[in-house]
Amino acid sequence: MHITDIFRRDSLTLSFEFFPPRTDQGWDALFRRISDFEALGPSFVSVTYGAGGSTRQQTHELVMRLKDGTNLDPVPHLTCVCHTEQEIGHVLEQYAQRGISNIMALHGDPPASVPNYNRSDDVFRYAIDLVKFTRRFGEDGRHPDPRGFGIGVAGFPEGHPDTPNRLTELDHLKAKVDAGADYVCTQMFFDNRMYYDWCERCELAGIRVPLVAGLMPITSAKTLHRMAELSGGTRFPAPLLKLIERCGDDAEAVKRVGMHWAAEQCRDLIDHGVSGIHFYTLNQSDATKHIYQTLGAKDSAAFR
Description:
It contains eleven helices and eight strands. The chain is α/β, with parallel strands linked by helices.
């Protein structure tokens, strides 16, 4: 279903993110949990795309397995790095032919296997270029839906790591929306006040599309430190860090604290009328199920 129809149908969208497993055991483990995710009835699910397109085939495989074998509506990620127009066009053509309705257009990370990668050589320098190309693909009549693909882009409530000027950052986001993006999904955050402030600044900038809040429950101390390494500046509120420190070496206690914190974020976001919540699941269903249960919901329909 086209993303604009999804937002029209669901007053609050609940969605999940998966990544393509790297091993056969990982694939088996994910699809053992798929029924748990299906039972929660998400509005859509997204599938990540490795740095420099390193998981391109695995991403396509996971998207098609979800499309053909489940009730989930997959939204594949696409990135700018290491791709020609012909390659991106081919990917879009494949998805259009298989009935995929939506794309997440991202700048993306350079491949770790290519040191000192020069992004100035990329045909798509920025996410806006990928948004424009994807929009033209639909306008050229190459998608069965006359609207073409629904397009999502990333937002950064705590600031884009490559754009220290917060005014310029919002200008860039507004340009992506004006180029054809239908919604914005944020990077993870742990302090809702940062998100609300960012939403107000988006409104001042004239950004009128749905702003989906991205959340990742902390399930271990290792996950916390990994987030800090990869997220490019995510802030961890002192009260959250105090709670985790109090847990000491009790791994189960850390997990309970992390899930409770995420559940309270969700409750507060819902109370404030958020357009959608996107869970970065790490392919694990337990934390997401727990959050739903904590909020007194059997599935996503309870929130709509």
